[in-house]
Structures are given as C-alpha cells and as structure tokens.
Amino acid sequence: MAMEDEDNNKTLTATNTQTGIRKGNDVGENGACIDRQPETVVHQAGLKQTAARGSRSGPGAHTATGIRVLKQRNMKRNGSRGCVARKTRFGSRERDWLKGDTQRGCVCLYGGTVDPQPPASGPQASSTPQTDLQLVLCSTSTTVEELCAQRDGQGLYVQLHGDLVRRLDPSEHPLQMVYDYLTAMGYTDPVRVQQEAANSDLSCLIRFYSERPVNPDQQERTLLTGVFSVRKGKTQLHKWAERQVILCGTCLIVASVKDSLTGKMHILPLVGGKVEEVKRRQHCLMFSSAGSQAQAYFVNFDTLADYHRWYRQASKVVSQTVSMVDLSCYSLEAVPEYLFYSQDITHLNLRHNFMSLQGPGGLLNLPRFSQLKSLNLSHNRLGVFPECVCEILTLTELNLSCNNLHTVPLQIGNLQSLQTLSLDGNHLSSLPEELGGLSQLNSLGLSFNNFSHIPAVLERLSAVDKLAMAGNRVERLELCTVARMSHLKNIDLRLNGLRWVKNENLEPVSHVTQLDLRDNCLDSLDLSSFCSLEALHCQRNQLGTLTLSGFALRMLHASSNRLTTINIYPIPNQLTHMELSQNLFEYLPDWVCDCRKIEMLDVTHNLLSELPSRLFNSLSLRKLLAGNNHLQRVPDLLDHVPLEALDLQHNKLTELPESLFFKALNLKYLNVSANALESIPSSSQSEESLSTLQELYLTGNSLNENCGALLVGHQNLRVLHIAYNQLISFPASKLSKLELLEELNLSGNKLKTIPSTVSSCKRLHTLIAHSNHITVFPEILNLPEIKLVDLSCNELTEIQLTDSLPATLQEIDLTGNNSLMLEHKTLNLFSNITTLKLDQKSTMTPRDSLSASTPWNHGYSEMSGQRNKLCVSVLAVDQFRDGVEACYGIFDGDRNEEVPRLLQCTMGDVLCEELQHSSVDTVYMCNTFLTSHRKLGMAGQKLGASALLCYIHHEPSDPGGYLSLTVANVGTCQAVLCRNGQPVPLSKVYSLENSTEEMERVKLSKAIITKFHIKVSGVTCCSRLLGCSYLSPWVLPKPWVHTEPLSSQDEFLILGNRALFERVSYQEAVYTVQAVRDPRAAAKKLCSLAQSYSCKDNIGAVVVSLHIGEDSCTCDPPFSTTEPRGPPPASVPVSVTSGPTDPATLSSSSGIVSEFNSETSASEVGSEAGSTASDEHPSAGPASRPERRCSLHPATTLCGIMMPGSTGAGAHPGLFQRQPSSATFSSNQSDNGLDSDDEAPLEGVISNGSKLEVEVDIHCCAFQIQSGILESPKNLDLEKRGSDYPNGKMRRQNSVVVSTTNGCLLAVCGREIADLKKSPSTCSLFGKKLSNGSVVAPEDSHNLIEVALEAPKKKSGYFTAPAQQDPEDQLIVPPSLEQEVREQLRGQSPLVSGPSAPSTPPSLKDSVWDHPHPPAFASHLVPGPGPAPILQQEVYDTAL
User: What is the SS3 assignment for 1173?
Assistant: First the structure.
C-alpha cells in the first residue's frame, strides 16, 4: 500500500530487539509454545518512547521471535472516537508482510484516554509514557490470548461505530473479526479486504483498544468517589474529619475510616432528599435524606470542579420520584460494587451493556437488591437466559429483548409478581408450560422471534390482553385458536409471511377489537366472524377480496392491495377513518355513502371515474383524498358541508362545482393540480366572502389571467400554487388583496412582470416564479419576512435594489437569466445572503467549446420545501476524468445535511480512484460506495444518507466505441432513463416497504421494526444507506449496481430523491422533461410539481439531456431538438471549401474571448458580465452549431480547417477573415502604450476608456492529407498548393499550430492543445510538452512549426493586460510598425526551430517582412490567378 504522508513515513524506524526473546520451546504466560504461535509483529507508536518502556524485560516483555518495534511521532488524533488522519503506517517490509498472504493483516491497538489535567510533578512528568497507538501485524488465526501474551497485556477491547466498548474473549480472533465485518459490508475481494483492514480510517467503524478506554463523563454518571472533609449532622457538635466519600446509585456512602472502605459504612439515601450549597464554607455541599428523621452530611470539596461535579450528579438523584438507577449504554460488564449499598433501588436499567454472570457486580449478585421491581437487561449479548433473575421474586417488569436467547428456563414460573415480560428480538421458538402459572402477567412481548405458531401456553395467561408476535414465522392463522384465547383483545401479526386465515368455526369471535395483519402475503381475508372488531390494519398484502363485520368497525386501513370492492355487513355506522389508496376500485361501494360518522376517506391512486353525490354531500366527511383517479366531474354541493380538506389532483376535471366555495365554508385545503381546469368557481355569491381557504394548489391546468379576479375572495389564503398554467399577467389590484399570503408559486407561465402590488403581501416569505419571461426584478426585497426568491430561467437584465436587504432573506436563485448584469453595489448586498445562485459565465473560447463539447448537458434543482434546512445535495460533472465521460449523483440525508455534503465533495474523487483499480462495473461502483461509507468518519456513525451515482463511460473493452451508463444506489434515490419516450427504471429502492428480500434480511438479523412507520429501530425506513453505521448489520452500505448500454433512442436521464418520485410518477416525469427539453428548466419543473402535489420535504432533481448518435457514438445528431435556456453556444470558424467568397454566409467568431479573471472581484465580474457577448455575433440557425464528432467517426474538420475530401454548404477553402473582438481591461492596466490622451493611438488598437479593442487576424487554411485521398481535380489543386511549402511546414499566426504527423496534417488552436490532449481520439497525436506550452510528438518533432511567443495564458476571468511588456502576450503587428518590430527582433532570438529543423537562408527571412500588408499572406490561400508564393521554412515572431 502506498504511503499517504511521506514525511511521517520517514519517522518510522525499525529496530530488531533481541532482549527478552525466548528460545526453543519456552512457554509464555498464556501457556502456548512460542514456536507454534503464528508470527506476530508489534509496532508501537506513541508520543514519546521512554527509557522505562524500552528497558522493559521479563516474561511478558517480548514473547515472539523477530519482533520489530516501530516508533512513530506526531500521530494526529481526532479525539477518542475520531479517525487517525493517516491511511497507513507501513514501510516496505510491512507491505511485504501483507503481500505474502491475504490471511495476514494489521490490527491497530489504541490506548485508553489519558487524563487531560497536567501532572502536578512539574515538567519532568511530561516523560510519562502515554501509549497512543500500537500496530500489530498478525494473521487471522491469531487469538486475543496470543496478542495479550506478546505485549504483556491484560486484555483487548473492541468498539464498533464509536459506540460501546466490549472486552474480547481470549479465544476471539481480532483480525478475523475485521475481515468478517468488511465482508458483511460488501467487500468480496480478499486482497481488497486485506487492504481495507489495514486502513486506519476504518477505526471509525471498528477499533481495538489495549485497555478499557476511560470516559470521564460516563465515569461521573456511574460513580463518584474521593477523600474530602466531612461533618455529620447540622449541629456544630460534630467535628470535620477526612473520610472516603462515594456517590453511587441513589445513596451517599461515607466511610468510617479515612482512605479505607473497611468497617462501618454510613449510607444516606438521597431520593426525595436535598442537596444544598453551604455559603459559610467555600466549595461545601449539604446532603440530606427525605423523611421526618432525615440525616445530613456536610462535604467540603478541594476544588471548584469537584464541587460542581458532585452537585450536578446529586441533584439528579434527589429530583427522582422513584429509586431508579439508569446505567444504560455504559459498556458495563458488571454493576459497580458500591451500588449494592443502595438497597432502596426499585428500578435498574442495564440496557445496552455487556453484562456478565460472574464477578462481584455480575448478574449473579442482582438478587441482593431486595426491593427491585423493574429490571432492564435488553441488548446485552447474553446468549442464555440468566436464571439468577428468577430469584428476584419482587420483580414486576423484566426486559430481556435482543439477547440471542433460544430458550426460556423453567424457573420463570417463580416470578409470581411479574406483570410485564419482554422477550422480543431473540431466537425463541417455544415457551415453557411454567410460564402459564404467572397469573399477574398482562403484557408479553414475543415479536421478532422464530415462532411458527401461536404458543398454546398463552391460553392459560388470562391476564394477557395483547398478542405481540410481529416478525415471526406464522404462515397460517386458525381463528379457532384465537377464539380459545378469549382474553386477547389486541393481536399483532404483521411481518409474519402470513398466507391464509382459516375460519372453520362459524362461531363469532367477540373479544378481539384490534387486528394488525400488515405486510403479509394474504390474497383474501374473511373476518366476518370478528363481530367486535374496531380497527383493522391489512396494508401491503395482496388482497383481492375483503369481508368484514361492521358492527363495531371504526377504522379500516387497507391500502396497497388489489381490492376492487369490500364486503361489509352490516353498514359500519361507527366507521370514522377509512384508507383504501393504491387499490383497483372503479367505483366506491354503496355502503360508503351510508356511513354516518365517516370523517376521513382516502381513495387516491385508484380507478375511480366518479364520486357519489351522497358521499360528497356527507354531513360528517371532513377530509376527502381522491387524487390520481379518472374523475371527470365533481358532484354539485346541495347544502353546506363540513369538508375541510379536498384533494382532487391528477384527474380529468375540466371544471369545479360553482357552489364549492360558498357551500364548503370550512374548506381550508384544496388541491386540484394536474387537471384540465380553465377556470375556478367564485368564492361567494355576494361581494362579501366567507371563505376560510388557506392552501390552494392549481398547478398544471389551463388557467389564464382571469382567474386572478376569482382569487380575491379568499382573503385568508396563505399558500397559492398556480404554476404551469397560461397566465400572461396577474392583476395587480387583485394581488394586493391577498395580504395574508405567505407562499406564492407562479412558475412556468408567460408572465413578463410581477405586479408591484406584491409588496402589499407583508407576510410573504417564499416567491417562486422561475421559467417565465420576467424582465424586471419584482419589488419584494422590502418585505419584512421574505426568505426565498426563485426567479431562475427568466429574462432579467438588471436588478434595482434598495440600500439594504431584509435580515430574513436566505436564498435567491437567478440562474438561467442569460442577459443579467449585476452591479458592484448589488453583489455587495447579495454577499450577505446564505445562498445566492448565479450562472457561471462561460470562460471557453469558441474553439474551446468545440473541443470540450460533450454529448450531454445537465440541469438540477434543489428545494427545501417547508424544512428549515436543505438536506439534499447534487453531484454533476459533464466532463469526468480525461475522456468523454460524465458523473452525476444525488444524495438525500432526510433530516441531516452533513452526510450529503460530504458525499457531494468526495464521491467523485473516490470513483476516480476506484476506476484505476478495476474496470468491472460491479466492482468499482461497489467499492466506491463502501469507501465513501468509510470516509464519512465520525459523521457516518450516527448519520446517514441515500445515495445514487451515475457514471457514463465507454466500455473498457472498446474505449472508442459504445457508451454505457452504470448506476449504483443505496436508499431511496432513483434514476430513470427515457428511451423512445418511455421510462426505464435503473435503480432499486432499498426501503423495507418496497423490497421483500431486504425486509427478510433485516428480520433475520433480529432488528426491531417499528409499527407505524416501518423503520429499522425507529430510525430509517431504508435497509441500505451510506452512514448510520451504528445500525449495522441491519443497514448496509453495499449498493445495487446496474449497467445499461446507451443508444440513440435514449433521450435523457432523470435522478431524483424519494420525495420527488413519491409525488411524480416515472411516466409523468418523462412527459414533463419532454415538454420542457431544457434540463435546468425541466429539473425546476419537476421539483415545483412535487411541491404542488403536497410534498413538504426536501426535493432534489437532476436532468441529463443525452445526444447519443447511432452506434452509441458521441457525434452530434443531424439536427438539434433542444433549445436550452442557457448561454448560446459560441460560434466557431466556418469550414473552408472551394467556392466563391461570400462574407454574408460566414459565421463570425472573435479571435480573443474575454473570460472571468480569478483575481477580479465578484462585483467586477457581475458588472461587466456579458460585455463581450455583444461582440460575438450569435449563430443564426442550426448550421452554425459546432459539430461534435466521436472517435468512431473522425472529424473531417478541426478548428476550422477543412480536410481534403470533406464538403460543406456555404464554406470556402483557404478563406481568410478579419474581424474585431473586444476584451475588457482596466484602464490603469492597459498596455496600449498610451500614458495620456495627447499621444496618438496605435493603428489597429481602438481604445474607448475602460475597454480595449484589438483587431485580430484569423487565418483559415486548407491542407491535404497525403494518403487515402482520391485524385480529383479539387484534390490535385490542393496538392499543388500544398507542395509549395517545404517539409509541409506553414506559418502560424494567432496561436495556430500546423504540424505533419504520420502523413496527416493537423491544425490546432494553441488554446485547445491541452483539451485535445485529454481527448481519447487525439491524445495519441501529442507527445512531450515544450517550455512554451506547445506539444510535440516525439517521433515527428521536426515537423512542427512553433512560435515562441504564445497567446496570453487563460485564467478564470478576463484577460488582464499587464502594465509591463510580457513576452507571453501576443498582438498582431500593424503594418506601419512592421519595420520597427523587425529591427527589434533582429537583436533578439525570435527564431524557434525544432530539434532537427534545417537552417533558413537569410533571404527568406526578410522576404515576409518586406511584404507591405500581413493580411496578404492569407489571401494567397484563396483560389485565384497567379502562382502561390513559397512560404519560408522558419517562422519569426509576429507579435510582442
């Protein structure tokens, strides 16, 4: 493995120590023969190696032959739980150790946390040994016992995910534990597993300690002890004395003898007592017990820190109402021995520890608590049921969940007082009959075990009213068994794989009131015999028929099935809540309209074509959700109804009932998005409106500006979404009436302006109006509560602001406004905003844009919704690595923003690294996710995120051939490819609800899945995430990987998070993007639609437009079907073919392109943005677009040079073109030679104040490829002209390089050399770089004509003209200065020749300079009468 830090590597020194080495068959302390132990090498890394440590000898000093001790200094630590910054600490010898066998590896041993307080013994105490890290090279067969014997240790400890610390058994194998952990994560290659195990970043996931780490905070909450001055009683009769004082559990313990715990111990119960400050003495506390005969102790502490520590902990104890001790999550192996002095303890919580049976504080001693009533031993890895707890006869509550228990002992019958017994998350398959004797037991938890049937012993537990058996293996339920258990009222059998419910006995079951059968495999269900059933949950089954009794039914949840009808008898008059979404209902049953108390009805995502009029006019219905159906009309309201929420989105409605708003006066929420509405009903029949509507969603209809007048009556409106309609304007007078408006979405209309009356909406905090034609920035920045303004994809040109911005403003999005120019003042004001989104002005020249052209472009959008923070991040790289590749990703952290940001910054780099190691898609993608999971470090221990990564690339077997798309994902982020207008899902949703195999895997791992939200341990619904490592092995980072070949039928790719695709279906997403075409505007529209469809969460979307030609090549299609709303593509020099010269047919291009300077301030960039765009004539028509070619179909033109044999309409061979270009300079930096206005300007240089215009000659030349060209007259003519140039060399002007390589002529713009070298199709033409930046093929370096003076180097901003003459700057010399320049150049060395370039006759050198006009050079390239002149063999510089 390569070293990451060479400097630190130099500090590693290996020394072979011979002292203390045993010979022969000497036996170490562990009783194992040394010559039979596996080879083990110990590396010690610490802050300082002391003489005491180096001189250590004896049996335990070094027990293995060939031990090498490596000293390493200055190891950076990130806290006790942090990762060590370095990746590896191995030298060549250590790497050889790893290469020998994959079963070899390294174990990093960390020491315990040292006391941060400085020692009191002075400066010499700094030499005290502080063990920081030990590196142990060992094998997978090395045991803990052997490692401890080698290093004279007492034991090893392991910590997973920065959480609990467990002592390892002597027989465990540390390195094998690491290998098993990495394999469970997803690594498959043994070599890669070995490398990852040696990576110190892994310590954030699994870490080994040579001693138990000390957590001061944990130790404080567990036990406080010290020797202090103590006085008993409140009177002055008692004297102060030095005594040992202990605060443990619920009592204060004072020893009767100083520095000794022998003899009598004074116990002071503190629960319900007092702890008070004694003001007469410094750092003194009074502890007193409760009751009429309360005792008191005064304790005087030595330091203020001790005083606060004891006061804080004692205050918690005295504030308790019961004698409870909480020692959960402390990594305890035994309870503190002093805890047994607290005999008043009634509740003891030992959850999430590693309690052992033996020892002074082991479980065997728990019966010493004589008053213990509640004991929690869950998550302790016990393995067996501790029979000793059956001796605590006072127990009323016992929790032994998640302990890998397989059996319950017979002694459980001794706990006659037991009322609650929790045995969830174990491996139980049966229960003893003695359990039936617990007459007071009323709660029994058996969920997530291995029961295949309901235990018969439950029939005897008459006090148990709830059967909690979720997550078992009960596939058949016989109702006769349930009938015999007449005491059961609540039955939970979800997640059992239940396939059928058998009802042989027709006798009614009158005792069961609640039944939960969610997430099973039922296809039919007949519960007509459950006459007392009040609530039924049967979601996510495969039900086709459902029969129920309606006598007592109050709640019915039957979503996500295949129901077409439900049979209920009699009519459920008590039914209040019914959820039937995602079924196959074409009509609602008649009995639904007869339910007298129905309040909420959810029938979304069905096949309903109409709603019954009686239902709509129900006098009890308050919430009706009927979206995503086929409704064409809504019944008229006949009378006033109590309806409060109505959702009718995604139907086929063309109108709403006219009486809707003045009959449903309680209506507060209305969503009719995605319909065909052309108008909305009036809010009232009179001028005075009684509407209480607060949220109105009208997105995706056909409404025009007339609807604005109808919205005035809703004066309580707070949220208005009217996006993607036909609004040309919004009435100004009407908008001013909506004074309570808080959120307004007007996106996707045809608005040219937003009325100034928007300033009347004083409560407005969100304005979204992207994808319009707005030219004037609205007057909204004076609103006191404005937070978000989205005016992207509009036609803004400037922004007029006040002197200050509201403090509440958090985000402004101005992307997609191509003509926008921001002044210095505006940018300074915007600099205080948290998020400001602006377009990055293009810094590419027209020639750069040709070489950098890719067959795809993207747009993305992120919206926070109603969250306070944005937890979605996007990764988008159109040009990934060096070839024609791309990388896109989206990361959703749900409730955290840290992990998505980390993944956004690192995942692309990780993919680049992995691609260097493997070309197999499943390997490099899987390793990318696993490595990113590791790199999250401490942030990934408790936080996580869904992640999706898309990589567009050529197949490794054919780098120049077909393109493929490789997608990998974990969690709920999804990718959809549009192929021939149809969606093609590419990802897999890793949620418990959508993946049966993942649900089964999590169940087998004995995870607790919560009831209502289907989440692992109540944390996440995803079974695979990056991060959340503390949920391992239930939640894994291994991704789903899929590779899809791309073709010309693939139009675009959509990436989105869970919130997007929960609201927008695949098909709708495809239709949406097809209608918009511009990727950025399409991504914006997807997010706006999701918000209008009632999504309140963070939303993220990425749209990648694909332009894949035939055979999956990267050529441009013959015609463009997209019109992106971004900057117009820069034009390129036209191709040159034979024909008459017609300047009118030529597309112009600037010779010098202005760019943003990295040294220019943001205000300067904004104020001058677009100043050069006006100097570049826009292309007029598709013909002016640069044609992109791939390696499969080589280009016939390159940088404006048309190769022989190629043709083009309207093009001309050898055409020379001159045109001016503008570059913006600062006036005090211009290098035009003018210090004042009195001096005459140079010819060809036009100065107008702060701008400098330079006339530039652009030479377009035609050449011939000597091989493979037909002998046509045209080719012969070109060949004749080409033969006039000796050695095929030509003069270069304006950084145009022409070289001969393998018989082919190549014309390259100097600015494009770096880009072309990166291209897979042209990189073979380039060799070594010369000092002036040009590139020469090694074998043909003598054929390349160079110019020593290059064009100004490209920066990220405008070209800045230096104040001094710079030999790197190049300008065209005006004719009047040629003689002077020539004389100056004679005194310099302007000649640059290749390694083997022949000498040039002086006569040829002067012939060019004697020519009166430099442009005449190019004129000879145009076909015309007269012989072509001979070009000189060597080229002189033509610029300064």
Answer: helix
Q: Which two tokens stand for residue 604?
A: 């979304």
Q: Cα separation of 699 and 1361, whole Å?
A: 52
Q: Please report the pLDDT score of residue 1192 as a whole number.
A: 44
Torsion 48-50-53-55 (CA) sign: positive
H, E, C per residue of 1317-1340 = HHCCCCHHHCCEECCCCCEECHHH
**Average pLDDT estimate for 1310-1320:** 41
CA-CA-CA-CA torsion for 55, 59, 63, 68, nearest 10 degrees?
0
Q: Is 1185 exposed, middle or buried (0-12, 13-18, 19+ CB in 10 A)?
A: middle
Which two structure tokens, joined as six digits, stand for 430?
A: 């049966």
CA neighbor of 60 nearest in space, from 138, 154, 136: 154
* pLDDT tens for each residue of 404-429: 999 999 999 999 999 999 999 999 99
* β partners of residue 1406: none
**Residue 178 dihedral angles phi and psi, to the nearest 5°:** -65, -45
Contact status, residue 1261 vs residue 1215, Cβ threshold 8 Å? no
Q: Report the 10 Å Cβ neighbour count for 1165.
A: 21
Give CB contacts under 8 A, 24+ apart, made by 727-731.
727/703, 727/751, 728/704, 728/752, 729/705, 729/753, 730/705, 730/754, 730/755, 731/705, 731/755
The set of residues, in sequence order, having a beta carbon less than 8 Å from that of 1025 and lying 6+ positions away, is: 944, 945, 946, 947, 970, 971, 990, 1031, 1035, 1037
| SS3 label, residue 789 | strand
What is the C-alpha to C-alpha distance for residues 838 and 818, in angstroms, rounded to an integer? 10
Task: Tell me the two tokens of residue 1129.
Answer: 């593509």
> From CA 1048, how far away is CA 1185, in angstroms rounded?
19
Q: Mind giving me the DSSP string for 588-604?
A: --HHHHT-SS--EEE--
Report the sign of the C-alpha dihedral through residues 845, 846, 852, 856, in that order. positive
d(C-alpha 1371, C-alpha 1369), whole Å? 7
3-state secondary structure of 1153: coil
Q: Which residues lie below 8 Å from residue 1359, measured CB to CB, with a gap of 6+?
A: 1152, 1154, 1155, 1157, 1223, 1225, 1352
Reported confidence tier of residue 154, pLDDT bands at 50, 70, 90: confident
The tokens of 343 are what?
Answer: 């005999």
In the chain, the largest separation of any two C-alpha atoms, in whole Å, equals 130
Q: Which residues pair with 325 in a beta bridge?
A: 348
Residue that is written with structure tokens 């006459």 in the block: 531
Q: Residue 1111 — pLDDT band, cuts 50, 70, 90?
A: low
Going through 599-680 in order, the beta strands assigned E by DSSP cover: 600-602, 623-625, 645-647, 669-671
Q: Rounded to whole angstroms, how far apart are CA atoms 732 and 751? A: 12
Query: What's the distance, CA 716 to chain centroid?
Result: 38
Question: CA–CA distance from 1235 to each of 796, 1241, 1250, 1353 (Å)?
Answer: 39, 10, 14, 25
Q: Do 362 and 356 contact (CB within 8 A), yes or no? A: yes
Q: Which residue, 1266, 1285, 1286, 1289, is CA-closest to 1276?
A: 1266
**Residue 387 burial (CB count, 10 A):** 15
Pairing of strands 490-492, 466-468: parallel
- First-to-last C-alpha distance (Å) of the chain: 51
Judge whether residue 829 has pLDDT over 80: yes
Structure tokens at 1361: 């003209």
Inter-helix orientation angle 921-935/898-915, to 10°:
140
pLDDT value at 755 more than 80 = yes
Report the pLDDT value the prediction gives residue 845, as an integer from 0 to 100: 61
Q: Is 69 exposed, middle or buried (0-12, 13-18, 19+ CB in 10 A)?
A: buried
Beta strands in 1237-1282 (DSSP E): 1245-1247, 1251-1259
Please state whether beta strands 600-602 and 623-625 pair in parallel, antiparallel, or not at all (unpaired).
parallel
| pLDDT confidence band for 294 (50 / 70 / 90) | confident
* Residues in the chain, overall count: 1440
